[in-house]
Amino acid sequence: MERPAWAPRSIDITVPSVSRIYDFYLGGSHNFEVDREAARRAMEFLPGLPKIMQANRAFMRRAVRFAAQQGIDQFLDIGSGIPTFGNVHEVAREARPDARVVYVDHDPVAVAHSQAVLEGAEFADVVAADLLKPREILDSPQVERLIDLNRPVALLLVAILHFVEDADDPCAAVAELTAALAPGSLLVLTHASYEGIPTSAERAGGAVDVYKDIRNPLIMRSRDEIARFFEGYEMVEPGLVPMPRWRPETAPEEEDPYAFSGIAGVGRTA
Fold it and tell me: With 90 as the cut, is the pLDDT of residue 113 above it?
């Protein structure tokens, strides 16, 4: 397989990558046949996977606009993936031209792409780091340069926590990040769940198995389990709901049934 110019030398392009699969679902061009093959296998069980990802991105954009309307001009997007149309910095700066954004990902492809997209941008940067090592993120030069932790921050954990197993204690990582944020900060979160998927849990489990096969286990959590990530936060109306029902701009009834396959919420620190 020929390595395209955008693929860093350090990555193994024969192994599927979660962020490249996500890019494929969103109609992006930064993916390989190995990623598309894994995506198509998962779609045999859940044909609506692209609709789920689109609903996820649409929620993220609404939540970023909401944060900006609340006066927040700093965004920390962990598990940001490969930049596609409608990135956090684009949406945030439309609403607040002075907004600053730090993207964080541990996938070298996502980081390399973000660096290319953000080249020369004074207001945004990317950190190669892992959600499970919050201090590495918070103490990074990029965060120190762009984010003032003494003022409110919007922390985005969009479609990332379902890739962290309970054994790795994602709640502890979220709590450590939360502890570093100023009062009035927001936590913006989405998470995969069997609740709301318009098919049986057994059938959806086939798609989950595809992710397990590519050594990226997808952990489906219940609404109550997802609510634990918001301990210490006051939920913003309408609370923890299926993605299209969070402050919709169009009638949720018009959405594809698969768009409801995921839980979304925004919380505010006291």
Answer: no
